[in-house]
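Quick illustration, no need to memorize.
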Amino acid sequence: MSKTKRLNRDHAKKTQRPMVEDRIIAEHLTNLLTPTIKSQSQYFKELGLRDRILTLPLMVAAVLTLLWRDVPGVSELTRLLETEGFLWCGKTKVSQQALSQRFLTFPAILFERIFTEILPTLKIRWSARHNRPLPESVQFTLSKFENIWCADGSTLEALFRKLKSLEDVKSGKLAGKMGVVMDLVTRLPIAIWFLENPCASDNRFEDNLLELVSANTLLLLDRGFYHFQFWQKLIDRQVHFITRIKINAAIEYQQVFTDGYSLRDRDC
């Protein structure tokens, strides 16, 4: 009996057209990002990049448009830029080859610096919201801890190799390893780390996490951080944590606090 080939929907060719640009959201993004982009212009020049057609503002707008409007690819993005423009960029004629090459060589550090600079603003705006009350469980946890953070590591997927410039890249080569710490309350990142080795264990991020976390913080850890010496270091720093237990773990209960159908609280 033949087996059906498993499809990866992320690799499926998109046939839909991109979403229409919403004027209100576009104005919001423009007001939020324009000052930050201008503040990074000097660093842009320090990297030896020249202000021609594909400038820093245009590349930031291009990436946001790809993600926000679900643009199928660079060809459609090039068409949008030439026929209608997007966000703060007016109509601009540029070849698909030039835009593709710019994406491959554009320094990622510029996007990182822009995102890092707007994070405080995003936190302030989140604090000003009063129409999204926190769940009772989060409110109760905040009464016991100063921070509620989530930590996880993820292997980045292999390059699709759809561009001609990527034909020589080894097939199936993974893009690296990423570690992220998120604030459970604001849903904003606290720190993002990257390793070129996609086979690296989540344990490689332990030192980064120890430098970052402070006392009276509750950490929600993925099982990749299942390391007893690391846990002891967290305990010594008065950092609390919750993680999933391994299936084959041997457990010895020291004390039982609650043992019911809905709640089991035990000291291991």
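The two ends are 48 Å apart (CA to CA).
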